[in-house]
Structures
1.
Amino acid sequence: MQRQGEGETPDQAGRQERKAIERLAYRLDELAKGLGISRRTLERERSAGRFPQPDLTIGKAPLWKPETIQRWIDGGGH
C-alpha cells in the first residue's frame, strides 16, 4: 500500500494541493459562474466595495472561503 505523497510526481502533488485549496476556497471565475454573473461584473462589484474582500491571495489570485460568500449572500449580497 502506498502512503499519500509517495510516488507522486511534482506535477501530481501540485494538482492535489490545488484541489485542496479549491475545496476550501473559491476563485473569481468559480464565484462568477456560481452567482450567474460575468467575471467582469464581479470585478466591478469588488472595485465598488459591494463584494467581500478575499480571505486569501495566492500570487495575484484572490480566494474566498465558502462561509464568507454565504454570509454575503445571507446579508442580501451588499
Note: Residues 10-24 form the longest helix (15 residues).
2.
Amino acid sequence: MSDRVHELAEIWRKMISTDHHKHKDGYFFISKSWSYDHAAKYHAEHTAYIGEDLFGPYRDSYAEAEADLIAHIIKQIKEQEQWALGVMSMQEDDRWSERDAEWMLKVISENAELINGETK
C-alpha cells in the first residue's frame, strides 16, 4: 500500500473513531486475480459501516486499483465533511452530534494538504 493510501486511511480512522470503534471501516484491500489464460487483474475493495462500500472495477495494474482506492477514501472524507458541516449549521440546541462533527472538521482541517494531494 502506498504511503498516500496509508495516510488517507489513517485520516479516515481518526475521523470516524470518536463514537465507537468501527473495525470494519479500517480495512482497505487491493486484490489480484488470475483467470485461465488472461493477465492478472487488480481491484480495490472497502466494506464499511459508515459511508459507502467499494467494489472497484478490475484494472490492468495495481496503480490503477490504488488510484480507485485513493479516490474512494477521499470521497468518503468529503461526504463526512458535508455531514459535519450540516450538523454545525443547525441551530445550536438541535445539534445532536456536535462533538463528532467538530472532531471530523478538525481532522480534515489538519490534513487538508494531504487530502487535496499536496505534499507536506
Note: DSSP finds four helices and three strands in the chain.
